[in-house]
Write a structure and sequence with these properties.
Structural class: alpha/beta
Strand content: 15-25%
Distance between the termini: 10 Å
Mean pLDDT: 97
Bound molecules: nicotinamide-adenine-dinucleotide
Low-confidence stretches: none
Length: 365
């Protein structure tokens, strides 16, 4: 396969693992020709560390580079829509970190433009392509737990200000536990169970200000703009009922991240913010869960597998798995949780979506 030339916009905290994997694990499919950051030092460091041919310090310059076919946008959430639109307008495909946008309208704008221009658009998370979640999907699709009746998902922690070097964005529009961690849980759930029809939720802001305790901004206070504890219900198109809690307000809990309950058994799904197992299955009247072997590849940190799949899809003329219908459905869902709480009523989703095909056993990029 002819490699796809890509440019990476944003050389912050998460860029290391992308650069490691895109120049290593996925180097047969992907050729990183340029990196870009508004902070020149970051672009130059990334260029040097990973041997990237070109470094840019403005978005205009990287978008004007004719060698680049696809932009990987790993900037902060407020920049996802503008940078994706710039890429599409420059005739480049776009793969974006989560969330696709900070509001539904900005997501719709991008999907419309990508369709008009016949360009690919999609993005993170790609953990649903990891061995753990793909194994769960196979168990469900092959009928091991029967029809899905319900799901229970829970992401609760005390926020990111104790470790992230610039955590303010987690408390601004486009952040919060729903827009930050929700994409992992929701992308996993819609891959396992299918599209969601409607949502009802309650939200709260427990701490109106957050104190940064990580370096270099230790001691800085951040005003909180978005809900930081969100609990809600989802009605899936297939009739299953889901519950989801995402929180930056409480300490660690001991619930499984995701449980799927079927008419003939139950499944404990591994952490959707990771790629591997464990996968645990309880069948019928058995009294205990049993660990099931993870049968797919990508069990270690494989961030960028969605980019590799998109590059492969581009060459094969098929739809990428981490595609814009999926990332938009997840955005639509996240907005619906916040809106339901504000409105005090059920919110119907704007668009459904069809699950992408699962990976084939042994499929590698
Ligand atoms: N840090 C993590 O562990 C992690 C994990 C998974 C996903 N993510 C997601 O990845 C994205 C980036 O997160 P991060 O932690 O790397 O943030 P970060 O703040 O550490 O890095 C973002 C970088 O993008 C640059 N940037 C911002 N706007 C730009 C623009 N228009 N053009 C060029 N560069 C620009 C900034 O200068 C910065 O260097 C976020 O959407 C986040 O949700 C982060």
């Amino acid at each position: 396969m002819n490699k796809v030339n890509i440019g990476i916009v944003g050389c912050g905290n998460i860029s290391d693992i992308y650069l490691t994997n895109l120049t290593g694990m996925f180097a047969d499919r992907v050729n990183v020709v340029a990196v870009c950051d508004l902070i020149p030092e970051r672009a130059l460091n990334a260029q040097k560390e990973y041997g990237i041919p070109k470094a840019y310090f403005t978005d205009e310059e990287i978008m004007a580079d004719d060698e680049i076919e696809l932009i990987v946008n790993i900037t902060t959430p407020d920049q996802h829509c503008p940078v994706n639109l710039m890429a599409l307008n420059a005739g480049k495909h776009a793969y974006c970190e989560k969330p696709l946008a900070v509001c539904r309208e900005d997501g719709e704008k991008q999907v419309k433009l990508a369709k008009e221009k016949g360009l690919l658009l999609g993005g993170a998370p790609d953990t649903f392509l990891g061995g753990g979640i793909q194994t769960c999907r196979k168990l469900i699709d092959d009928g091991w737990i029967g029809d899905v009746v319900a799901v229970n998902a829970s992401m609760r922690c005390r926020g990111h200000e104790s470790w992230h070097p610039s955590p303010a964005f987690y408390y601004k529009v486009g952040g919060g536990p729903m827009f930050d961690m929700g994409p992992y849980y929701l992308t996993c759930l819609v891959n396992l169970v299918g599209a969601v029809d409607s949502v009802m939720a309650y939200t709260r802001i427990t701490f109106p200000q957050r104190l940064i305790t990580s370096e270099p901004l230790r001691g800085t206070l951040v005003d909180v703009e978005v809900p930081t504890h969100i609990a809600g219900l989802m009605k899936f198109a297939n009739g299953a009922i889901g519950t989801l809690t995402t929180s930056f307000d409480v300490y660690d809990d001991h619930q499984a991240c995701i449980e799927v309950f079927g008419s003939r058994g139950s499944l404990i799904v591994p952490d959707p913010n990771g790629f591997g197992g464990p996968v645990k299955l309880l069948r019928g009247t058995a009294t205990a869960y049993e660990e099931v072997p993870v049968v797919y590849d990508y069990r270690e940190n494989s961030r960028g597998v969605g980019v590799a799949d998109m590059c492969t899809a581009l060459r094969e003329g098929r739809k990428p798995r981490a595609n814009c219908e999926q990332t938009f459905h997840v955005l639509d869902l996240m907005c619906a949780f916040h809106e339901s709480s504000q409105a005090g009523s059920e919110i119907k989703l704007r668009q459904g979506f069809d699950r992408c095909p699962s990976l084939s056993l042994g499929e590698k990029f």
